[in-house]
Specification:
The chain is mainly alpha-helical. It has one domain: Up-down Bundle (Methane Monooxygenase Hydroxylase, Chain G, domain 1). It is about 90% helix and about 0% strand. It has 2 helices and no strands. Helix 1 runs antiparallel to helix 2. The protein is rod-shaped.
Length: about 90
């Protein structure tokens, strides 16, 4: 019986390690996306009034895409976290 428990413990420990690694990777992706979003917002809000509407529209699209990316990454992190808590 002790061997089975040890094997299960080892397996769960490895699963947890892999899950933590995945969570760390997702967290890094999220931080990079947030930094990119802040950079794009800063360019958008500090750009001179003389910029053409085309440039402004491009920045709006970039901000929108980054927000979508953040939403997807946030959901991925939530899903990974939910899986981790239900496996325990």
């Amino acid at each position: 019986m002790d061997v089975v428990c040890l094997m299960q413990f080892t397996q769960k420990s490895e699963q947890l390690r892999l899950l933590q690694q995945t969570l760390d990777e997702k967290r890094s992706e999220l931080l990079r996306a947030e930094a990119k979003l802040r950079e794009t917002e800063e360019r958008f809000y500090t750009s001179p009034a003389s910029l053409s509407d085309k440039v402004k529209d491009d920045l709006r699209v970039s901000v929108s895409l980054l927000l979508s990316s953040l939403t997807i990454n946030s959901r991925s992190i939530f899903c990974v976290f939910s899986v981790a808590t239900t496996d325990q």
